[in-house]
Amino acid sequence: MITIALKLLTSNKQQPPCRQYMIINPLAITAAFANINPNPNSQAAIFLLIRRESEGEKMVNWVEAQKPLLHGLVKMAGLRQLTVEIEPGTSMSFWVPKDKLPKTKNTTKEVFPVGKTGSVSGANKKEKPVVVLIHGFAAEGIVTWQFQVGALTSRYAVYVPDLLFFGGSVSTSADRSPEFQAHCLAMALGRLGVARCTVVGFSYGGMVAFSMAAARPELVEAIVVSGSIIAMTDSISTETMERLGFSSSKELLLPQTVKGLKALFKVATYKKLWLPERLFKDYLKVMFNNRKERAELLEALINSSKEANVPVFRQRILLLWGENDNLFNVGLAKDMKEQLGEIATLQPVKKAGHLVHLERPCVYNRQLKQFLALVNSSSENKI
């Protein structure tokens, strides 16, 4: 359904679907939901909000308002939200296939307590291959992957986690390393009954994906990474920030002003992103919570990898890259491909920046699905 929403909103003949830049555009998602929702009352309510807003009534934060609409689209694609308790004080929020929900229903959000493994309603069905989509640093999981979920759910069991201190995921642990994120994600997937999966990581999520693949090769069958590196060294961090004109990764990735947020999106996108000033303000209010903990995540990202050694990966790896990525340029991807060797394939995407999966979703999804088909075809031949 998310793919349908994208097509509905990108019918402009001057700009085909894969060239439409719709990042964090809540008005677009709102209109899409209204177009595919058969309930006329829902449509009327949505467009009443839009009309009142246009007439100057300050009613809603539009970025916050689009979340339930996006969640509605995701539910129509067959996913449901739950929380997995990993250990006391640490829990991770997920979107999972609805047939993987616990048999015992509680409230609107299921909670898997610590020490429990899921007994799911679809256990007797033929299992789809599992794909885990791991988000980056500027948004939670389902916002990051809004244009991929609907393209994958017909053939794959899609899991979309929120990493710790994003969305509904929290931890009282002092560990902020990507290795701890990977450990918690692997534990949560185990509680959900996932024994084998392909991980798809974007930016910070790519580093978590690499960490989980290195630590748990029996769990991770293949890796897809966009706009990321295996580990963030001091030299790479310093060179990148100096090249982009920022004093630190915190200044870039945790903006405190509209000017800073605009600078972040200028770095992250291939073409200049136009949004009303109001939407930038709304985004800034709701998408950068847990600032203290996220700043600590950035510090741990560098401190934990001063001497980055490339692990020996057993998995097949796809580096799916925006050719015009300003943050982690395609040169870094080529170097990483050489380090990884024959197990890795580099696939650049033209006219796309760091946010390749949002800027060119059709191209990105096509390349992703081709790789997933290849991985799962190889797995079936081994059986």
Helix content, binned percent? 40-55%
Number of domains: 1
What radius of gyration results from the CA coordinates?
A: 20 Å
> What structural class should be given to the helix and strand makeup?
alpha/beta
Distance between the termini: 33 Å
Number of helices: 16
Shape field: globular
CATH hierarchy, class: Alpha Beta
The chain-level mean pLDDT equals 82
CATH architecture: 3-Layer(aba) Sandwich
Largest sheet: 10 strands, mixed
> How much beta, percentage-wise?
15-25%
Which stretches are poorly predicted, pLDDT < 50 over at least 5 residues? 1-47, 105-109, 119-123
Provide the CATH topology: Rossmann fold
Keywords: Isomerase, Lyase, Transferase
Protein name: Isochorismate synthase / 2-succinyl-5-enolpyruvyl-6-hydroxy-3-cyclohexene-1-carboxylate synthase / 2-succinyl-6-hydroxy-2,4-cyclohexadiene-1-carboxylate synthase / O-succinylbenzoate synthase
EC number: 2.2.1.9, 4.2.1.113, 4.2.99.20, 5.4.4.2
InterPro entries: AB_hydrolase_1 (IPR000073), AB_hydrolase_fold (IPR029058), Epox_hydrolase-like (IPR000639), Meta-cleavage_hydrolase (IPR052370)
